[in-house]
Design a protein that fits this description.
The complex is a heterodimer.
Chain A: H1 5-15, H2 23-60, H3 64-82, H4 85-91, H5 93-100, H6 106-130, H7 134-142, H8 147-158, H9 160-186, H10 189-199, H11 203-231
Helix pairs in contact in A: 2-3, 2-6, 2-9, 2-10, 3-6, 5-6, 6-9, 7-8, 9-10, 9-11, 10-11
Chain B: E1 2-13, E2 16-28, E3 33-38, H1 44-51, E4 59-64, E5 67-68, H2 74-81, E6 84-88, H3 99-109, H4 114-127, H5 143-155, E7 161-165, H6 173-190, E8 193-198, H7 201-207, E9 210-215, E10 218-224, H8 225-230, H9 235-245, H10 249-262, E11 267-274, H11 282-290, E12 293-303, E13 308-317, H12 320-332, E14 335-342
Parallel strand pairs in B: 3-8, 3-9, 6-7, 7-8
Antiparallel strand pairs in B: 1-2, 1-4, 4-5, 9-10, 11-13, 11-14, 12-13
Helix pairs in contact in B: 3-4, 3-5, 4-5, 5-6, 11-12
Classes of the chains: A mainly alpha, B alpha/beta.
């Protein structure tokens, strides 16, 4: 088929035919995406740090219990990190149902989002801890710091740039995951792009959804980079 | 004040056993500056870490005052550590904290209230001469300044003992001198016992009162610094003392080779002198008495905290007979003479 200028023109005009857009729905979907992103980021941040800490602390221990715990946690982390997100959502449907009593709506997206991103972030946190200067740890211990004090006053502040840049990367991939979660009914911009944009042949809706998602990603990246720049005094 | 008794420390891993310390017995007195000198792997670092309980001995006891470290539980050891400051080769400051916050760090751990923390930290920063750098971050400081912060931090909890782990090894000679002066001042003014480990005999010579020379897990020689310098017995000690005296061995050797070409018949001797003998007109007298010509190749004088110690490398020119006489005459003075080269 030869390319027809008229057809291409029609396609382009479809993309910018903003009259087909219900801005109310766009706003609703944006709020849902933001809700899923923000809540999952917060949960992943907390869970990931705890899990990362657990991985780090149990790995270097020579206590047999710690070694076993490390093996189990490391295995689960690797498993959850490896399952493709779209499959994980489906896999977790019964669990989600039990937890949030629904398999649609933004809240239903959260368990899968958290389950898939926490292990990923935990690994980033763990490697951040591993980069902390051992000499500084020794210095803190030589001052009589307890394990908890070393974690709170040395590991966390000294690896903060890594922790922050890690959560930035994680948050960005979470935005992507929310779009996928949207497709199977969790709402949000992914859902909007799929249902309104694709199934009802309104490319403009898809385009707007895409732009909003990009904006969200850019803003996250900007905030992340700025924070890292501000706290990194190395 | 610190007693080490029958200390043994072995590490075990997949590759087998490693004896870091074999049998260490030693008492360090209150208020002294005690140095451990040795090559890397001699066990100095391990020994230092036994004193603040970062490591526990496999055998033997470490006593600080009346307390035996190995009898204490973890919490009590941590409490004990607050009274032992430590400084490090690589400073080990927290990059995320300003100078002031770094110095306050040990005070936070000791649960000192905020106002006292601030006041103490500020005083210490002044003591180490960094008043205008309080709010700088470590990355903005030079090596010498970082070590000053390290020292201020180590002193924050008013320790009885300060441990120094190669604290000047990463610094240039001038900064090293400044840091050593600071340590000496702290020892004198705050009456802090200082225990330092180093592989630089220069550090020992400049500030230590007593020294123990370590080699593969043992103390091979121990005593007042001046005695060790005057009369080193163990080969390792001799090497350290010699190393410190020959400021630039290569250059001396080159100079010797050159002179050897110029005056093939000369002998080259090294004269070591200390204390009052530094002031004697030995060279002139020997030259006048025996009629030899004396060429100075290299000379230096070094101060120990008690008295000066000097080295002079000279070439003695003259007949075999005269030179022999000169050598004998040299030996009547309170100096040590070593013939480095003697051409027939």
């Amino acid at each position: 088929m030869t390319s027809n200028p008229l057809v291409i023109g029609n396609i382009l005009s479809d993309y910018v035919d903003f009259s087909t857009i219900s801005w109310e729905k766009v706003w609703e979907a944006t709020k849902q995406t933001l809700f899923m992103t923000i809540f999952s980021v917060i949960a992943v941040f907390i869970l990931g740090i705890l899990l990362g800490l657990l991985l780090y602390e149990t790995q270097k221990s020579d206590n047999i219990m710690a070694v076993v715990l490390y093996k189990i946690v490391a295995f689960l982390v690797n498993v959850f990190r490896s399952i493709p997100f779209i499959i994980l959502i489906v896999l977790l449907i019964p669990f989600t149902k039990a937890l949030v009593d629904s398999i649609t709506g933004p809240a239903a997206g959260l368990p899968a989002l958290i389950f898939s991103a926490s292990p990923f972030y935990a690994r980033l946190v763990e490697s951040g801890f591993r980069e902390v200067d051992k000499g500084v740890i020794e210095a803190a211990e030589s001052m009589g710091a307890s394990k908890w004090e070393v974690i709170r006053k040395v590991y966390i502040p000294e690896s903060l740039p890594n922790i922050i840049s890690g959560i930035t990367v994680t948050a960005i991939s979470l935005v992507g995951y929310t779009a996928m979660a949207g497709v199977i009914g969790a709402g949000g911009l992914g859902n909007l792009a799929f249902l309104e944009g694709f199934q009802r042949s309104r490319p403009a809706v898809t385009l707007v959804s895409t732009i909003i998602i990009l904006l969200i990603v850019f803003i996250i990246q900007f905030i992340g980079d700025l924070s890292v720049k501000k706290i990194d005094k190395r | 004040m610190i007693t080490l008794e029958g200390i043994k420390k072995t590490y075990e891993n997949k590759n087998g056993r490693f004896e870091a310390l074999k049998n260490i017995n030693l008492t360090i007195e209150k208020g002294e500056i005690f140095g451990f000198v040795g090559y890397s792997g001699a066990g100095k670092s391990t020994l230092l870490r036994l004193i603040n309980g970062l490591e526990l001995p496999s055998k033997g006891t470490v006593k600080i005052g009346e307390k035996t470290l190995s009898d204490l539980n973890k919490k009590a050891i941590r409490k004990e550590r607050q009274e032992i400051g430590m400084i490090f080769q690589h400073f080990n400051l927290l990059w995320s904290r300003t100078v002031l916050e770094n110095v306050m760090f040990p005070l936070e751990i000791a649960n000192v209230d905020k106002n006292t923390r601030l006041e103490k930290a500020k005083n210490l920063i002044q003591l180490v001469g960094l008043k205008d750098k309080e709010h700088s971050y470590p990355s903005q400081l030079s090596g010498g300044e970082k070590q000053r912060v390290g020292i201020a931090r180590a002193l924050a909890n008013e320790p009885k003992v300060l441990l120094s782990d190669e604290a000047t090894s990463a610094l240039d000679p001038q900064t090293t001198d400044e840091v050593l002066e600071l340590l000496e001042k702290i020892n004198k003014e705050l009456k802090v016992t200082i225990i330092l480990i180093t592989h630089e005999m220069e550090v020992v010579r400049k500030i230590c009162h007593r020294v123990a020379v370590m080699d593969s897990g043992n103390i091979v020689e121990e005593g007042p610094v001046l005695d060790i310098f005057k009369d080193p017995e163990h080969p390792v000690t001799k090497r350290f003392v010699k190393q410190d005296r020959k400021v630039d061995e290569k250059e001396t050797q080159k100079a010797m080779a050159d002179l050897h070409v110029l005056y093939p018949e000369g002998s080259i001797i090294q004269i070591l002198f200390q204390g009052t003998s530094v002031n004697l007109p030995i060279i002139t007298e020997v030259s006048r008495e025996t009629g030899v010509d004396i060429n100075i190749i290299q000379g230096n004088i070094q101060s120990t905290h008690e008295m000066p110690v000097g080295t002079l490398v000279v070439q003695v020119l003259g007949s075999q007979e005269k030179r022999q006489k000169a050598l004998e005459l040299f030996n009547t003075y309170p100096v040590d003479v070593e013939v480095l080269k003697n051409d027939k």
